[in-house]
Backbone:
């Protein structure tokens, strides 16, 4: 787990309810209330999508919902900004290839 | 600076540039003058359609066929696709009353050689899986095509420039005077002027003010069309989309299909097209608000709600921006193309309303033939600026 469990300013990580998500077909566990991007980084996943023209990997960049670099296909909907979308139980998340596909 | 040339074109939008290219190709020295920058007017705030299905049988439909053929030839000549695409189009039908009128309309269009058919709900859903359940049928034509206006204008500009066409921007034409020599003198805001035997008024929605400079009444009014653009998304269906509702109320004034108050006030009708970049253009409004080309909350809201009524799934999609352009409308829905009576050498090529992109090549070609006195394969009298009667500007 890639998590800071004892932050110098924020202090120790509090207990949180566990949420189960599926990422590219693999079950991950996340903390209730956290953003998808945070759950993915905690689970060691840093490539969220591949770019349209050159198929280059992209992940989190601005982290505040502005740059749209971290978008993924979530529950069949492309272009979901994972840094500002909270995890939900049973959520299905996929690495978005190019502009993705409707499901 | 003062100079002599063969043709001065007032207006550097898609029509002015197309005319400039074809005239240059015919060996004329051409100067195009525009008060604004590149694609500042309606040519830069529109969709990219070469649309057949909205057209009643008649000259507009015929010219669209000819224009499409010309585009195909230009793509080869210029070695530039100009983002040409052929996705086909569907006009969505919501009730039996619309269906009856569209059946008749499709029959008329077919008799004119347009490859269009009616398809049922099931076939419509095959092409558009996310259509709202209330759509009972649709038309389908694979003829409806598109081409990117910016690429087209750049191409006309580049190819025209190679042939010597000059383009002057951010310089308004302020006066046009007939000289004793028979030439026209076109005077610009920066003090420069050009003398030429031929002047072409290709100023779109601003054509009346150019006509007024030579005491002509050009009956064009600006009609504002707002368009909302989505983020880049994967294709949401196979074709581009329009709705029958607006078309039907135009074909049959007393049609049973009623437009809502909002649809009436804004002149709303659906135009849903996928751009070459993968964004969607959603439109549009038809508003008479003079020369105000701002976008409005009411217009944007109206377009979004209209789109969601046909494609509920679009609620998941982000909106990036909105734009508005002034479509130059004529009293009879046909462009104005030709030389004015009693004004030898003064031509107008304007008034294309929403068909400027579709009709630019054929307009440029026909205008060039008229200016050069070439034999024209078709009758264009019904486009003549003299069809409206009196020429004197009131």
Residues:
């Amino acid at each position: 787990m890639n998590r800071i469990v004892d932050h110098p300013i924020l202090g120790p990580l509090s207990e949180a309810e566990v949420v189960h998500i599926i990422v590219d077909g693999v079950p991950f566990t996340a903390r209730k209330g956290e953003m998808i991007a945070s759950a993915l980084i905690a689970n060691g996943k840093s490539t969220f999508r591949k770019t349209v023209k050159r198929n280059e990997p992209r992940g989190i960049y601005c982290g505040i919902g502005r740059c749209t670099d971290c978008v993924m296909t979530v529950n069949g909907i492309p272009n979901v900004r994972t840094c500002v979308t909270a995890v939900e139980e049973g959520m299905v998340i996929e690495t978005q290839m190019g502009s993705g596909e409707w499901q | 600076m003062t100079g002599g040339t063969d043709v001065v074109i007032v207006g550097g939008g898609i029509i002015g540039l197309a005319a400039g290219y074809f005239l240059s190709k015919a060996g004329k020295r051409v100067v195009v003058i525009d008060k604004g920058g590149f694609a500042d007017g309606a040519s830069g705030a529109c969709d990219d359609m070469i649309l057949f299905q909205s057209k009643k049988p008649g000259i507009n439909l015929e010219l669209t066929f000819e224009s499409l053929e010309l585009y195909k030839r230009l793509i080869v000549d210029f070695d530039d696709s100009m983002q040409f695409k052929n996705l086909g189009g569907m006009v969505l039908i919501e009730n039996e009353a619309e269906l009856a009128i569209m059946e008749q309309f499709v029959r008329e269009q077919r008799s004119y050689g347009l490859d269009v058919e009616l398809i049922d709900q099931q076939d419509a859903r095959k092409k558009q899986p996310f259509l709202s359940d209330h759509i009972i049928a649709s038309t389908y034509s694979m003829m409806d095509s598109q081409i990117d206006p910016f690429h087209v204008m750049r191409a006309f500009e580049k190819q025209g420039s190679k042939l010597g066409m000059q383009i002057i921007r951010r310089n308004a034409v302020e006066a046009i005077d007939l000289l004793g020599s028979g030439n026209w003198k076109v005077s610009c805001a920066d003090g420069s002027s050009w003398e030429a035997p031929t002047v072409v008024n290709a100023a779109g929605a601003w054509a009346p003010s150019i006509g007024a400079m030579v005491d002509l009444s050009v009956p064009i009014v600006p009609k504002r069309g707002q368009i909302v653009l989505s983020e880049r998304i994967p294709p949401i269906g196979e074709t581009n989309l329009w709705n029958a509702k607006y078309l039907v109320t135009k074909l049959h004034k007393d049609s049973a299909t009623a437009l809502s108050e909002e649809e009436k006030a804004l002149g709303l009708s659906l135009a849903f097209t996928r751009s070459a970049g993968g964004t969607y253009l959603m439109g549009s409004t038809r508003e008479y608000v003079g020369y105000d080309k701002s976008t409005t909350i009411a217009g944007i809201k109206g377009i979004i709600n209209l789109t969601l009524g046909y494609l509920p799934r679009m609620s998941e999609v982000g909106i990036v921006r909105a734009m508005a352009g002034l479509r130059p409308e004529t009293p009879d829905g046909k462009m104005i193309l030709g030389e004015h009576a009693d004004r030898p050498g003064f031509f107008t090529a304007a008034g294309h309303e929403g068909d400027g992109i579709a009709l630019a090549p054929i307009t440029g070609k026909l205008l060039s033939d008229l200016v050069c006195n070439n034999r024209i394969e078709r009758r264009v009298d019904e486009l003549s600026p003299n069809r409206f009667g009196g020429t004197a500007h009131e």
Notes: The two ends of chain B are 33 Å apart (CA to CA).
